[in-house]
Amino acid sequence: MAKQPRILAGQTAAITGGARGIGLATAKALLGQGMKVAIGDVDLAAAQASAEELGPSAVAIALDVTDRGSFASFLDEAERQLGPVDVLINNAGIMQIGRFIDEDDLTAKRQIDINLHGVILGMKIALERMIPRDRGHIINISSQAGKFGAPGGATYSATKHAVVGLSEAVRGELRLMDAHIDVSYVMPYVVNTELGSGLGQARGLANLEPAEVADAIVQALRHGTVEVWVPKSSRRTSVLAAVLPRRLSEGMARAMKADRVLADADSLARRSYELRASRSEPGLEGASEPQKLPSSVD
Ligand code: NAD
């Protein structure tokens, strides 16, 4: 008999990077399920404005995912205001694109700190709380760049591949410990958010809306899905790519122009996003030179 979907009403979720984009759409979707939501963001003013719009079951809390103290206070404060955190969504992330050989070291470090170490920290701090309760669900937002290496976003792809490996390994450890805590990872194609602005287009694939990713997250929470492809059909492409000889799978990617999505980005259209992203790790910025805009990836 098929398992009954889980009831989410009354549960508390903490969402990193919840001020805008996919995080904000997810907060809305979870509130729609009757959950309470804490949105943490390095941009506290934007998070506060979003929480206000979301209504009384949402709270905004300052968060820098690269800082252990900040992450622990985020979860402490979420639990103080809303009750034990049942769900952590590690969504905060940045994507700074450009040719790998032109990328400066601080840009690489910032993406690794936020996209990967932020998720590592979040999982550790949440599991300290979830393991004694023997319940909880952690959802890590990876990307399709976490399965296919995306030219023009090498370090970004590396961080998103790492999130997939991290999620699988921690999930395995939790099973060995007989802990009843779920770990899922989500791999969206390009989404219409500021992070996704000015990107190229693959043939036959339309950009997603943040609400479509949010719906997939709700379904993953309800059904305990581990590997979440958005759109679902991209799972077939990944299975096919894995069984085809490399010459054919790379030919298929070229025919779909999937190798041009980040490489053909319009740097002018991404200008304000890239500047915001370069200021997303407060601890690193003090010591850094101003961020250079990515050079064209022709
Ligand atoms: P976005 O830029 O719209 O939102 C990301 C949020 O994260 C922002 O509010 C930002 O302030 C916050 N943030 C950045 N650094 C932070 C830090 N140090 N601490 C706390 N918060 C921080 O981006 P989005 O498109 O909504 O992306 C959300 C996630 O989805 C990211 O992990 C991204 O890699 C992933 N993703 C996005 C796309 C896409 O095309 N938009 C596709 C696949 C995966």
How many strands? 7
- H and E order: EHEHEHEHEHEHEHHHH
Strand order of the largest sheet: 3-2-1-4-5-6-7
Distinct ligands? nicotinamide-adenine-dinucleotide
Integer average pLDDT: 94
Structure annotation, total helices: 10
Report the β-strand fraction as a percent range.
5-15%
The helix content, as a percent range, equals 40-55%
Walkthrough of the structure:
- The chain is an alpha/beta fold and 298 residues long.
- 45% of the residues lie in helices and 12% in strands.
- The chain is built from 10 helices and 7 strands.
- The chain has helices spanning 21-32, 44-54, 68-82, 105-133, 154-176, 210-223, 234-243, 246-255, 271-277, 282-285, and strands at residues 12-16, 36-41, 58-62, 87-90, 137-141, 182-188, 227-230.
- The chain has a 7-stranded parallel sheet, with helices on both faces.
- The protein starts with 11 loop residues before the first strand and ends in a 13-residue tail after the last helix.
- Mean pLDDT is 94; it is low at 286-293.
Notable features of this structure?
298 residues, alpha/beta, seven-stranded parallel β-sheet, 10 helices, 7 strands, 12% strand, globular, binds nicotinamide-adenine-dinucleotide
Structure described in brief:
The chain is an alpha/beta fold.
What order do the helices and strands come in, and which of them pair?
Layout (H helix, E strand, L loop, with lengths): L11 E5 L4 H12 L3 E6 L2 H11 L3 E5 L5 H15 L4 E4 L14 H29 L3 E5 L12 H23 L5 E7 L21 H14 L3 E4 L3 H10 L2 H10 L15 H7 L4 H4 L13
